[in-house]
Amino acid sequence: MNLESRVAKTQKSPEELYNFLTQVENFKHLLPDDAKFELLGEDKFLFGLKGMPEIKLTLKESTPYSKVVLGSLGDKLSFTLTADIEEDPQGAAAQLFFQGDFNAMMAMMIKGPINKFLEQLANGIEKL
Question: Keywords for this entry (predicted)?
């Protein structure tokens, strides 16, 4: 299953946005106020949103100023969340990509909540 967010624009430079996203503790600032967030280590965190199971993510890969890849920890849901960062006339633009290998039933159940999650992250990036 492949999903993508809209392009989110921020006044931060690509370098500032990249540095923000590679510090996983900053993801708590991108999530809604009612989301559960727990830092599990320097590069790992757990989050929970209404209507979704709690998910653990870790920083898997990063390319300075252009890409940040987070991956799931655990066997329940195996997926990656990639932020592609580009320069924009007013700062930086980022688009989020979710990739996961799920059976048809699971994909149908999580598509809505994952799309909502991507939208919330995009909104958070725009507020930076």
Answer: Glycosyltransferase, Transferase
Single pTM value for the model: 0.93
Q: Where are the domains of the chain?
A: 2-126
Q: Is the pLDDT of residue 30 over 80?
A: yes
Query: Is the torsion defined by CA of 28, 19, 17, 22 positive or negative?
Result: negative
CA distances from 22 to 6, 111, 124 (A): 20, 25, 15
The residue to which tokens 């708590």 are assigned:
28
| CATH for the stretch 2-126 | 3.30.530.20
Distance CA 15, CA 77 (A): 30
Q: CA-to-CA distance for 91 and 17, rounded, in angstroms?
A: 9
In the numeric block, the tokens 């059976």 are attached to: 103
Closest CA to 36 of 20, 22, 57: 57
At residue 24, the pLDDT reads 96
Q: How far apart are CA 6 and CA 4, in angstroms?
A: 7
